[in-house]
Amino acid sequence: MAAPVNSGYLQSSDPTKPRSDAAVPFRDIIPSPTHPRIAGIEKHDALSWCESRRQIEAPAWLIHRLDAKNLEQPYKGFTSDGTVRRGVYAYAGNEGAPTEEAASRTEVLLQLLSEEDKKAVQFGDVTADEFRLWSNPELYMNPGGLRLDQCKPEIQSAIHSILQASFSPQGYEKVLGCCLTNDFLGHLVNGKKVLNEHSYNFRLFGTPSLSSAWGYTFFGHHLCLAVVFLGKRMVIGPTFMGAEPDRIDEGPHAGLRLFRTEEMESLRLMQGLPAELQGKATLSKGMDGKSLPADRWNPFDERHLGGARQDNRVVPYEGCPVSEFPPESQDRVFSLFLAFNEYYPTAVLEHRLALFKKHLPETYFAWIGEFGDEDPYYYRIHSPVAFMELDFHCGIFLTNTTPARCHIHTVNRLPNRGDYGKALLEQ
Could you tell me which residues belong to the region Disordered (predicted)? Predict the structure, then answer.
């Protein structure tokens, strides 16, 4: 089925050239209550909203693509040429992962649950197909696990306690920031039963342990995390983090802004490159479906390639080798890597950064769009052990019909079977 040409939510008055500077006035593009993007959302919960979207051709296409029956089989892994490179990951015996604390807090959760809820949240081991069954839209098409906005507050708190134990302090703050920003979006469009702080699913795989593999997924609108523990080692990936809008400007969380480093450091990086390298990195000046090949753009993923249901995707290396960058530009690439991976605890992140630097001779930086101070754009950093994307999008709930800097998607994958801890388990 061919991808649709737009999201299906448009009307003739939607702006085609919204302002898109770093302080984009997203309040200029909030839809009216009768706009087809949100009409009737106040009457829906997550399940009924998804069913209502099935009646619209474009979101119906997306729902079909994300349906569990279309999960890629068998799992091979994200690659650059269709062939998995073995042995690129070298996990140490002890990387300082906080396995004991995460396992302890998971046991606390299980003690709080009824037998029915235990059965709902516990799946097979981390090799189960359901571990890959995450998705980032608000569309709730594959129910399962614990849906936090249907849980008691003590269950919600226990799940967040697991997240907090798993991640660095700044990483958990970013995770929580995604949840709070999603709640803010629900406030803006009067759809808090669909978009709220707890509209996420938690699924547990395997039994919490200090010696055998186990993990969990936590996913919903603009936030998807797959976490695996094995001894004192851990893998977080793939991950999806995003925001629409990218900041909160009122209420108790006013001033919260997501992805500032990923946005501003990348722009400084591109602007600071010599013209020859800027040209080499640029894949396309145009960002829309008319400027890019059909397999490189759709109205929901837009330019990013590593999202949900892309586990076996082949994405060739493109752009400019980072090894050609001057030293200060290479340092910015390292800063971006740290920003994308800051959810790892400090000790684990040191191992991840060392591995990334080891493969620097095979690392590429690619850009789509212009790179003025107010331009929207896309970029990715790609190596045998890293695949990081940032993309500015058209509105799904906001009404802009061209990309604006207030709607951000970031994707972080681990090529060559690093995703879902596969390479860790195989090692």
Answer: 1-37
